[in-house]
Specification:
Layout (H helix, E strand, L loop, with lengths): L4 E6 L6 H13 L2 E6 L7 H15 L3 E6 L2 E6 L6
Parallel strand pairs: 1-2
Antiparallel strand pairs: 2-4, 3-4
């Protein structure tokens, strides 16, 4: 059974342009992206939700997220219309 999910980590720098490019590249080859928050980001559930909202704002409306603990699961739910 293949798992079609990329795994990324967010450290003390938080959400950067490099991270966003990396997430966009992961969606070219994977259906889902799992983003783990490291301890130095600050283990606060509100902070995790804020980071998820920031990522979704940058990615656009065709993506959705789910926060479980300190892990953010991103999913591309609709292909672009041509």
């Amino acid at each position: 059974m293949k798992v079609n999910q990329a795994v990324l980590q967010i450290g003390k720098k938080g959400v950067t342009s490099g991270l966003m490019k990396n997430i966009e590249n992961c969606f070219k080859t994977h259906k889902d992206v799992k983003v783990c928050l490291l301890k130095n980001v600050g283990h606060d559930k509100k902070k995790a939700r804020e980071i998820a909202e920031e990522i979704i704002e940058t990615l656009g409306k065709k993506y959705t997220y789910r926060v479980l603990g300190f892990t953010i699961f991103l999913k591309k739910w609709r292909k672009e219309k041509r």
